[in-house]
Every structure is written in structure tokens, then in C-alpha cells.
Design brief:
The structure is a single chain. By secondary structure, this protein is of the alpha/beta class. It has a single domain, classed as 3-Layer(aba) Sandwich (Rossmann fold), CATH 3.40.50.1820. It is built from twelve helices and eight strands. Strands 1-2-4-3-5-6-7-8 form an eight-stranded mixed β-sheet, with helices on both faces.
């Protein structure tokens, strides 16, 4: 075993990572979304590590201070997925259970479809399959995704998110259901040098022509969605089943917002544990 990981590298970038649980346990890689860090899994990890799993939760590209390339082309899904594979390699894990929330879920969908040889099981929180989301944008989902065109503007979104100690960021996140302590973490992150641009580049990379995106997923898949999610609606959640050809379980959490790892950590941990236990090999 390579020992505990504090950092790992890929593409000449250095990433911070939380590494908890038995070093010889099966690996669960937990991927955060925007605008959070690996700490979003703090309340979920104890149940997973207590069940004997090793949980690796990286601060992803754009979030780790040592991994903030300036250009949007560096945030395409193949690059983001490559970071996850580099983490698995650093942990000497041939195959991992993937757990992703928000943008971390998009990366997880990508890897499960394009590199299924490295994925034991998939658990995605809030985020529908990207192609299901694209189809849903023809309807009411377009209104929920109002912010996506706006973040394509240069420098204006950064200014808005950082101004007045990120007051607008706190207000928007609070209205969407994110707890106050996580609002403060997000605000602190976005005022760091280069962080606002780097994290917004995940959205800006969507407009760049790149390698094939996520396709059909054959690995065992759990999708957890909250019916109070202000950003991702039920239509895209329902369409997601069309993109999973393997064993599939769709769980709707009544009254839960977009921020399920923070709002429903125990319930989420139990669902993820059931998923990984069912598909151990």
C-alpha cells in the first residue's frame, strides 16, 4: 500500500485530498461540486469508513490551490476524469466506487461511461446524466438553468461572486438550501486568488468542442435526487434512466434540496452503503 495520501499530482498540478478509513479497504472516491470543497462529505464519510471503506475526497481541479489553470480548455470532462484516475492510481486502486455530487456527479457519469473498467459502482447525488439534462433543457429545466449562460461572460461573474466578501454568493446559496457553515466556506474559497475563475471554468468548458462526453452507463448505478432542488428538476431526473443500461436505482428524497450531502448525510450514507455492499466483487 502506498500509505495515506495528503496530495496527489496530475498534469503538473497538485491536488489536496482527504484520505480516511482503512488503508486496505475498497476505495470510494467522493467528488464535490460547485462551489464546495471535499469538506462537503464530512458528515457522510464516518458511516462509509466505519463500514470498512477507504474514502478519498479530493479538492478537484480549480479548487485545490495548486491546481488552478487559468484557461477553460483545461476543465473539460476528460481532464477532470483524468484527475480522478490519477488519484486512484496514487492509492493503488485498480477499480473504485464513485460518489459524486453536483459537478462531481458529472465527472462520475463521465468516468462510469467512458472508463467502466475502473469503476465498481456509481452513486450520483442531485446531478442527472448530462445528456438527460441536455434533453430537459428543451422544457422547464431551461428556467432552472438560467445562470449557465451568464457565467460564460468574462470577469463579470467573478466580480459578482466575490464582491462585498461574497455577499451575493452567500445569499444565493442560502436561498437554495445550503447550510450557513457551508455558505461561509464557499465565500472564503471564491475570494482566494484565481479561485472564482478556476471554478467557473467548469461551466465555461461546456462551450468548447472536446472528446465524446458521457454515454450509456453499464456499471451498477444509484441516483439520489431531492424534490426541492432549485437547480435540477424532475424531468432531467426521470430522463436519466434512459442512459443507464446496468442495474439502476433511483431514490427521491422528499423535502431535500440540492445540497443532500449537507442536508441529509445519514440518509445518503445509508443509500450509498447499500449500493456499494450490493455490488462488491
Amino acid at each position: 500500500m502506498p500509505g495515506r495520501l495528503v496530495t496527489f499530482t496530475n498534469d503538473d498540478l497538485r491536488f489536496d485530498v482527504i484520505d480516511q478509513g482503512p488503508e486496505n479497504g475498497e476505495v470510494i472516491v467522493a467528488l464535490h461540486g460547485f462551489p464546495q470543497l471535499s469538506t462537503c462529505w464530512d458528515a457522510v464519510m464516518p458511516a462509509l469508513t466505519g463500514a470498512g471503506y477507504r474514502v478519498l475526497a479530493p479538492d478537484q481541479r480549480g479548487y485545490s490551490p495548486g491546481a488552478r489553470p487559468a484557461h477553460a480548455k483545461n476543465y473539460q470532462l476528460d481532464r477532470l476524469g483524468g484527475d480522478v484516475l490519477a488519484l486512484a492510481d496514487a492509492a493503488d486502486a485498480d477499480r473504485v466506487h464513485l460518489l459524486g455530487h453536483d459537478w462531481g456527479g458529472a465527472v462520475a457519469w463521465y468516468l462510469a461511461s467512458r472508463r467502466s473498467d475502473r469503476v465498481r459502482s456509481l452513486s450520483v447525488v442531485s446531478t442527472p446524466h448530462p445528456r438527460a439534462l441536455r434533453k430537459a433543457l428543451r422544457g422547464r429545466q431551461l428556467l432552472k438553468s438560467w445562470y449557465m449562460p451568464l457565467v460564460q461572460l468574462p470577469w463579470v461573474p467573478e466580480l459578482a461572486l466575490r464582491s462585498r466578501d461574497a455577499a451575493l454568493t452567500r445569499r444565493l446559496l442560502g436561498r437554495s438550501g445550503l447550510p450557513a457553515i457551508r455558505q461561509a466556506e464557499a465565500a472564503a474559497l471564491l475570494v482566494e486568488p484565481g479561485a472564482a475563475t478556476a471554478t467557473l471554468n467548469w461551466y465555461r468548458a461546456m462551450r468548447i468542442r472536446h472528446a465524446p462526453g458521457p454515454g450509456h452507463v453499464a456499471v451498477p448505478t444509484l441516483y439520489v435526487w431531492g424534490d426541492r432542488d432549485v437547480a435540477l428538476g424532475r424531468t432531467a431526473a426521470n430522463f436519466t434512466a434512459d442512459w443507464v443500461t446496468g442495474p439502476y436505482r433511483f431514490e427521491v428524497l422528499a423535502g431535500a434540496s440540492h445540497w443532500i450531502p449537507d442536508q441529509r448525510p445519514d440518509q445518503l450514507a445509508n443509500l450509498v452503503l447499500a449500493q456499494v455492499l450490493r455490488h462488491n466483487d
